[in-house]
Amino acid sequence: MKQGYISIILATVLFSSMEVALKLVSGQFNPIQLTFLRFLIGAIILLPIALKSLKSRKILLDKNDFKIFALEGFICVVVSMTFYQLAVLYSKASIVAVLFSCNPIFVIPFAYFMINEKICKTTIISLIISISAIVIIMNPFHMTNNIYGILFTILSAITFALYGVVGKKYSKKYGGVVQSCFCFFMGSAEMLLLILISKIHLVSQIIGKSKFKVFADIPIVQGITLSSIPGLIFVGIFVTGLGYTFYFLAMEKTSAATASLVFYIKPALAPVLALVILKEVINLNTIVGIILIIISSSITFVSNKNRTKIKSVEIDEELV
């Protein structure tokens, strides 16, 4: 259990530093290139643990499994994380961290319609508080130039929630490490294909004349220098690779509900790191939004813990 809580602390610190780290290296890489590189590195770090897990579960992956991983990789890496990286580019790291942490509220409608998951009273209360927090942080009556960053963050959170619900259907079969590892590999392969398409002269010319110039002639290794390697190592190996490794270790040593503490602490810790490292000013409306999100997260966490205890008791009674 002690090892589990150490893993939670390490995962929390790494995930909370994600936006700050991406902000620091964003000027050195194309945002699409950076997404491709960090998830490829993350997949490689997860691979030994994933292979060990497959062996213990006695699973041999076939083409149907890779079709599932390809779908998950497209939703998570290609769509959600591309929006996420663009959000970091256009907005404050603290804003992205806090708003993205609200992605569980988008899980609720997806889970209800796609896997018939029930919605309880505490879920509705948490949902209302989170939506209020998003509105307060967006400050619609005084929108600033980071409107694109906010919109990209919300789109990233919505698509990440969709990825979570799709993944939930298969998580029991594969396990979290296997699912994430091969999702990252397939997502990286799909991103590489898009990068190669962006290099076609005609495609590059057309996109280059639009507002989406970052999608034209996307580099693969350009920008990797002695000065940029430390940042790439941190976001690839530590944040993406080791971050997910510690998170899954935390789930194994404790429980899924307890390990989720990582994402409930992140909205409070990430803005502090942004303030200390990037000197980002945290406005009053953002502080109020952070407090509301922490309250919402606490309600969800306690509710999940209680439901886990009830299920455990019910299983014990059935065994008796």
Automatic annotation (TrEMBL):
GO cellular component, as recorded: plasma membrane
Domain EamA residue range list: 4-138, 148-300
Membrane topology category: Multi-pass membrane protein
Pfam families documented for this protein: EamA (PF00892)
Membrane-spanning ranges: 37-54, 66-87, 93-115, 122-141, 147-165, 177-200, 220-249, 261-278, 284-302
Residues in coiled coil: none
Subcellular location: Cell membrane
Principal location listed in the UniProt entry: membrane
Keywords linked to the UniProt accession: Cell membrane, Membrane, Transmembrane, Transmembrane helix
PANTHER family: EAMA DOMAIN-CONTAINING PROTEIN, OS03G0707200 PROTEIN-RELATED
Family from the record: Belongs to the EamA transporter family.
Protein name per its UniProtKB record: DMT family transporter
Organism: Clostridium muellerianum
